[in-house]
Amino acid sequence: MLLRRITVGFSIIVFLLLLCYLDFHIGPYSNREHKIWLPRGVVLVPFYMLCVIFLSREVIRILNAAGLHPLSWTVYLGNILIVFNSWIANVFQEYHIAVRETQVSAGGWHWAATASLFALLSIAFAVMVSFGAEMRRYSHPGGVTINLAGSIFAISYLGLLSCFIIQLYMAYGVMALLSVVIVTKMCDMGAYFIGKAFGRNKMSPDLSPGKTIEGAIGGVIFACTGACIWFAIAVPYYKSSLVSPLHGWIIFGTIVAFAGMIGDLAGSLIKRDSHMKDSGHSVPGFGGVLDVFDSLLMAAPAAYFLWAFGFVCPGQH
């Protein structure tokens, strides 16, 4: 089991690095002579949208097991629309800068705000569609409100939190995206190995019996170590201007690690409430796609905050 988990985890990391490499070398690509232009995210975003489809399917399955029966198509539509619009707002910015050679003035419309507006409008539209769909299938009292709550929960949990993953990459680049992946997964590894070796005190015995306080401490230490290595070696090698102070590495590793652990427990919460151990069987050794992404979904907003306010790379916000 452990060997399979390590093998699959390593394969996922290699595949993600390959996607990042392809995305970096394919887009953004501008060739004025041949009129070719591809935006950043042209490889990674479609892949993530595919992941969102699998995530939506698994969350719907969890909700069904808990007795909630939202209309599946509203969840799929809402989440895909939110992720796509969060990306396309940034694509407009890159198009105007790379192709039309226009610059956003300091007092003009901020493109991060544009991406946020697109996401908010998409969420509002998804909520309205969910209401409209429930109105259409309504036949008798009972069950409508709870099913509607299930739809809006799935849209908020997956679609809204995914916006931060998209925006982190589009605003700050591949190193920012990989920073949250590296730190979160280092935390998972530290919590697993330290917990297995030294774990004695259960962190949440009813919710997740395997997690211990010692494991959580080990996870934070591993996460901070991963952050130090990433920001001290990998990030400056990629771009020398991205210099980060030591205290920034520790802050980033600690906060993102805690956010990731909350995300992991959040995934456990909804699964346990539905009497499920794993969200699916799509990823050998891990369970479902949600079992891989649950920590990242909560860690992404924390990572975006730290990048946006210059805790890790001052001058990039």
Structure characterization notes:
With 317 residues, the chain is mostly helical. It folds into two domains: 38-172, no CATH class; 174-317, no CATH class. The chain is 72% helix and 4% strand. The chain has nine helices and four strands. α2 packs antiparallel against α5 and α8 (246-273) runs antiparallel to α9 (289-308).
Number of helices: 9
> Which descriptor suits the 3D outline?
globular
* SSE topology string: HEEHHHHHEEHHH
Number of discrete domains: 2
Q: What assembly state would you assign to the polypeptide chains in this entry? A: single chain
Which class best fits the helix and strand makeup? Answer: mainly alpha
Give the neighbour order of strands across the main sheet: 1-2
Q: Runs with pLDDT <50, length 5+? A: 104-109
Q: What's the total number of strands?
A: 4
Q: How far is the first residue's CA from the last residue's CA?
A: 42 Å
Average pLDDT figure? 85
Question: What is the gyration radius calculated from CA atoms?
Answer: 20 Å
Fraction of residues in helix: over 70%
Largest sheet: 2 strands, antiparallel
Strand content: under 5%
